[in-house]
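Need a sequence for this fold. Nothing fancy.
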């Protein structure tokens, strides 16, 4: 088991203040890396910015279909791709794609995926944010054997539209396999979303954003306690790419697929954009903002109107989280938009997007404390309610079809965490005792960020499927150190 105290202090962003999940006031990080550590590998400042074109993630087509079901095949395998200019990097892929392809699913229509693992380590595929049977949830001990093992996952899609993604969840391995590329996008659509007239087709673009580090030969350099040295920002598998746009509205679905790093996305000219959705799909109404904060695993659905810029404009999407002293500016740069043409635009962002499900009365309340050792010598430990993850233990028993309120507290003084619940989408009721009424946390969520000392109150209804599921910190290294627990819906 990999447990390191340095991971607690240097392996994630630590935030202070009570800034909303959409906005400012975030002060981050503890201490910069040593100069010796920073000197190993390719200097991020030497990597040319905005010379690689950002690819649009490819759609995966089903190999078969019936009246009710689409059937897919995926293979997890290694490949070489140009991630930074001039180098071929060995990456983990789904069907040869880094990051993985996009599955376009439809609410009410089942998807069946047969996964084959041709990597050298066991894997487990979790569809993050999905309402699925426990047998297809991709638990950390439900493994696909390396060297050609297979497993078939069934996704009933009995939920409304949502911005889902899939990734490895094999315990103690997921941090490295995800770092090396085992992520993909799963867009669940429905009629509610489709009839709104939002930007669609080639103007509806998923963005998979994360950080990385490379050795001198351009290969991924993975260390568990290496947050501060992961200073190369990747979007759709390319380091600091550019993306050509027309002077019209675009919809960008942003996925934070990093192991540990949070991003606060903003346009370089500080102009506003429209937040229309988050993890569990559209908000009730659009929300105008100048930035959105995403911790690992969270998603934001935004519309940027480039018609306000003349052709020839170059505009950065930036990460405006303040960095620790000594951190180079590279992690503040994400992506460059280039306005190259004009086009007609018939898309709209309506004043009302959807009606969110009503909040039924809650009959059970529970409390959860997230804590990591911050002062003890190595090795470090991580807990939920004072216990490390044990796959043979059920920590919480939940009666089927009940609604519960969970109060979740980050008990650390330095380290941030976030909190992800499998099976359900939840509502954030309060943050630090203040009711959530607008912005990114007003919609359906499955992952929520907690700065050191923060408390959030969540409400969820546990229905649809019985079985054993996880709740955990979605900073992968924290989960590897024990910050996971199991619930059983009975």
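Here you go.
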């Amino acid at each position: 088991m990999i447990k390191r105290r340095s991971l607690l202090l240097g392996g994630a962003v630590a935030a202070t203040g009570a800034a909303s999940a959409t906005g400012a006031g975030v002060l981050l990080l503890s201490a910069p890396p040593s100069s010796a550590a920073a000197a190993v590998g390719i200097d991020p400042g030497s990597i040319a910015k905005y010379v690689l074109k950002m690819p649009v993630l490819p759609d995966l087509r089903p190999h078969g279909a019936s009246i009710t079901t689409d059937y897919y095949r995926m293979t997890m395998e290694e490949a070489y791709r140009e991630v930074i200019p001039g180098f071929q990097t060995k990456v983990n892929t789904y069907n040869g794609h880094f990051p993985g392809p996009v599955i376009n699913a439809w609410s009410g229509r089942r998807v069946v995926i047969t996964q084959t693992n041709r990597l050298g380590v066991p894997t487990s595929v979790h569809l993050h944010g999905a309402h699925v049977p426990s047998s297809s949830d991709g638990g950390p001990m439900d493994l696909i054997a390396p060297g050609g093992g297979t497993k078939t996952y069934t996704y009933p899609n009995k939920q409304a539209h949502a911005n889902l993604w899939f990734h490895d969840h094999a315990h103690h391995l997921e941090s490295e396999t995800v770092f090396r590329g085992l992520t993909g996008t799963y867009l669940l659509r429905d009629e509610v979303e489709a009839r709104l007239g939002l930007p669609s087709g080639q103007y509806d673009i998923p963005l998979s954003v994360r950080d990385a580090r490379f050795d001198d030969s351009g290969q991924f350099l993975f260390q568990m306690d290496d947050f501060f040295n992961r200073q190369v920002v990747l979007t759709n598998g390319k380091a600091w790419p550019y993306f050509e746009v027309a002077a019209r509205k675009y919809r960008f679905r942003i996925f934070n697929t990093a192991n540990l790093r949070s991003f606060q996305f903003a346009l370089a000219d500080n102009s506003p954009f429209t937040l229309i959705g988050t993890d569990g799909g559209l908000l009730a109404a659009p929300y105008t903002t100048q930035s959105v904060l995403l911790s690992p695993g969270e998603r934001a659905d935004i519309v940027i109107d480039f018609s306000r810029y003349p052709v020839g404009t170059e505009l950065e999407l930036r990460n405006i989280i303040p960095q620790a002293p000594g951190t180079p500016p590279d992690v503040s740069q994400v992506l460059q938009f280039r306005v190259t043409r004009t086009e007609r635009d018939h898309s709209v962002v309506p004043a009302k997007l959807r009606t969110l499900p009503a909040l039924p009365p809650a009959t059970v309340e529970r409390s959860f404390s997230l804590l990591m050792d911050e002062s003890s010598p190595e090795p470090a430990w991580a807990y939920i309610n004072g216990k490390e993850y044990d796959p043979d233990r059920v920590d919480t028993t939940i009666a089927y079809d009940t609604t519960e309120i969970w109060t979740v507290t980050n008990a650390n003084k330095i380290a941030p965490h976030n909190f992800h619940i499998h099976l359900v989408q939840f509502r954030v009721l309060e943050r630090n005792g203040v009711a959530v009424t607008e912005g990114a946390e007003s919609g359906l969520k499955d992952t929520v960020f907690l700065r050191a000392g923060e408390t959030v109150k969540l409400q969820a209804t546990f229905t649809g499927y019985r079985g054993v599921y996880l709740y955990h910190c979605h900073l992968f290294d924290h989960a590897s150190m024990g910050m996971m627990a199991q619930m059983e819906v009975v």
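For context: The helical segments are 5-10, 35-38, 174-179, 191-194, 476-480.
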